[in-house]
Amino acid sequence: MKIGIAADHAGFEQKQQVVDLLTDAGYEVIDYGAHTYDATDDYPDIIVPLGRAVANGDVDRGIAVCGSGVGVSVAANKIPGVRAALITESYSAHQGVEHDDMNLICLGGRVIGQALIWELVQAFIKAKYDGGERFQRRLDKVIALEKNK
Predict the structure, then answer these.
(1) Residue among 35, 94, 99, 106 flagged as catalytic
(2) Which listed residue (9, 66, 94, 106) is catalytic?
(3) How confident is the model at residue 113 (pLDDT cuts 50, 70, 90)?
(4) Is the pLDDT assigned to residue 149 strictly greater than 70?
(5) Known catalytic residue: 106?
(6) Residue-wise pLDDT tens digits, 42-91
(7) Count of helices and strands (H, E) across the chain
């Protein structure tokens, strides 16, 4: 599985740790930035390359980290094809994939600790979309909303 990851300054340290953990676990990781710590960077600039990679299928899943996780979630969901959610507990980390085909997890580097971040990332990347009729019906409706239908 190929995983993309991005973070602004508020999630920079956590991103670096997740990259190391994912790499050690055998995943291919594409780091979309920030590549250096810059306290003045802006999360929309960081999330766009990751979001586009997720939407285009260049990566299988995406992970985004900012201070609260809210900013990257809002910005990511503006990119057609991205289904991002701010996640703070493990049930939603896997259920979002299983029922809603979530393809990008958003995390708050200033509000949850590194151990929980890793737990959420593992639940997210190990989950598989159920694809059952009712879940696909709902997903099709979400995709139609995105296309203004």
Answers:
(1) 99
(2) 66
(3) very high
(4) no
(5) no
(6) 999 999 999 999 999 999 999 999 999 999 999 999 999 999 999 999 99
(7) 6, 5
Domain boundaries, the chain: 2-146
Nearest C-alpha neighbor of 16 from the set 34, 43, 3: 34
The reply to whether 66 belongs to the active site is yes
Residue 70's pLDDT is 98
- pLDDT, tens digit, 9 for 90 and up, residues 114-140: 999 999 999 999 999 998 898 989 989
- Maximum pairwise Cα distance, the chain: 46
CB atoms within 10 A of CB 45: 13
β-partners of residue 28 are 2
User: Do 14 and 7 meet the contact criterion of CB atoms below 8 Å apart?
Assistant: yes
Q: Tell me which fold the domain 2-146 belongs to.
A: Ribose 5-phosphate Isomerase B; Chain: A, (3.40.1400)
Contacts for 85 with CB less than 8 Å, ≥ 6 apart: 73, 92, 96, 100, 102, 104, 105, 106
